[in-house]
Amino acid sequence: MRYIRYAILAIIAVVLVSVALANRGFVTLTLLPEALETLFGWNVSIGMPLFLVMLGGVAIGLFIGFVWEWIREHKHRAEMARKAEEVKRLHRELRRAKVKSEEADEVLALVDKKAS
């Protein structure tokens, strides 16, 4: 199973490197369109290779997806924490009940011994 995972990771790495090599051309990213640039009077531009733009978009999308899922699953994590706390409480209660029953058994054994 470990080798299959390594093979899949190697294939993904080869694909990413080939995409990066095929898209090395520089592109200019601008923050605002030209119409808004004239309205505000400023704009931010940066030049970078196209593959960085593509891989950055994928990374940002993955991050947003992970955060979205983490927020969406909050109710399930909270429910699991509540149930775990209840299980701990019930285990403590069971231990106390066992100790009390053992003490009561010793007393009953002494009473039976004296009665006979």
Task: Describe the protein.
This protein is mainly alpha-helical. It folds into 2 domains: 1-72, no CATH class; 74-116. Helices cover 80% and strands 9% of the residues. It has 4 helices and 2 strands; from the N terminus they run αβαβαα. It has helices at 2-22, 34-40, 50-72, 74-115, and strands spanning 26-30, 45-49. Strands 1-2 form a two-stranded antiparallel ribbon. It is elongated and about 105 Å long. The model has no long low-confidence stretch (mean pLDDT 88). It comes from Rhodosalinus halophilus. This is DUF1049 domain-containing protein. InterPro entries: LapA_dom. The chain crosses the membrane at residues 46-71. Keywords: Cell membrane, Coiled coil, Membrane, Transmembrane, Transmembrane helix.
In total, the number of domains comes to 2
Amount of helix: over 70%
So what's the overall shape?
A: elongated
The N- and C-terminal alpha carbons lie at a distance of 68 Å
Strand order across the largest sheet: 1-2
The SS-based structural class is mainly alpha
Sheet with the most strands, sense and barrel status? 2 strands, antiparallel
- Whole-angstrom Rg: 33 Å
* Average of per-residue pLDDT values: 88
Strand content: 5-15%
Number of strands: 2
> Segments where pLDDT lies below 50 for 5+ residues?
none
Q: What series of H and E elements makes up the topology?
A: HEHEHH
Total number of helical segments? 4
